[in-house]
Amino acid sequence: AQSVTQLDSHVSVSEGTPVLLRCNYSSSYSPSLFWYVQHPNKGLQLLLKYTSAATLVKGINGFEAEFKKSETSFHLTKPSAHMSDAAEYFCVVSLNTNAGKSTFGDGTTLTVKP
Amino acid sequence: DAGVIQSPRHEVTEMGQEVTLRCKPISGHNSLFWYRQTMMRGLELLIYFNNNVPIDDSGMPEDRFSAKMPNASFSTLKIQPSEPRDSAVYFCASSLVAGYEQYFGPGTRLTVT
Questions:
Q1: Rounded to an integer, what distance in angstroms lies between the CA atom of residue B92 and that of residue B112?
Q2: Which chain B residues are closer than 8 Å to A90 by Cβ?
Q3: From the CA of A8, how many Å to the nearest CA of chain B?
Q4: Is A28 on the interface with B (CB under 8 A)?
Q5: Strand (E) or helix (H) holding B11
Q6: Measured between CB atoms, does B53 come within 8 Å of chain A?
Q7: B100 inside 8 A of chain A by CB
Q8: Under an 8 A CB cutoff, do A101 and B97 touch?
């Protein structure tokens, strides 16, 4: 069994300040973890992924996430927010197998204020 | 690669009509997923296929919904008859293997009046 919890449904930051979107997961096995971004009226786009290699994962557009097994967390960060980062972000956990199903979090809406 | 292709991009239909949504996954991908997204319910997995075989359809809301994947390069999601509560954005996604990263299409916005 697996589950994922995004701890904040909405996060608001000012342009140029750091971004932190929190994600906790639960999995019976070593999971793969992903962050996706969805801009308004668009499909979901992969930001980054963790698949049991380096625990600090770098993604597109300056985003990073750190896999912390002891805390069962996979928080998404960015040092400096841009207006274009305003979107909805989804944390996803899955088993890295042919029968594995991905479980999506409920999403976090990021607002960036000028 | 062209990515995941969905058609139509927008569909407006009247209650009771049949609706067919289409998806072409990325070539070489073995898993295909259908999702529905609404403001009220968020993103929901409806069904997914591995190697053209339906693996989990527990998310299909009711018998009015059906999905097929006749070959590796094409899938359909059909709603018959459609109802206003089916109004949503329907996404198709594909992945190399289930459990790997998914690549999403642009979605079909369905409005049932």
A1: 19
A2: 43
A3: 15
A4: no
A5: strand B10-13
A6: no
A7: yes
A8: no
Phi-psi region of A56 (alpha: psi -120 to 50; beta: other; left: phi over 0): beta
At residue A5's C-alpha, the angle toward residues A1 and B104, to 5°, is 85
Reported as type and span, the H/E element at residue A6 is strand A2-6
Average pLDDT, chain A: 92
pLDDT tens by residue, A49-104: 998 778 899 999 999 999 998 999 999 999 999 999 999 999 999 876 555 678 89
Residue A23 to residue A8: CA distance in whole angstroms: 9
Task: Please name which of B35, B6, B18 lies closest in space to residue B79, comparing C-alpha atoms.
Answer: B18
Q: How does pLDDT run across B71-92, given as a tens digit for each residue?
A: 999 999 999 999 999 999 999 9
Residue pointed to by tokens 């274009």: A84
A35 within 8 A of A92, measured Cβ to Cβ: yes
State how far Cα B33 lies from the chain centre: 7
User: What is the pLDDT, as a whole number, of residue B1?
Assistant: 66
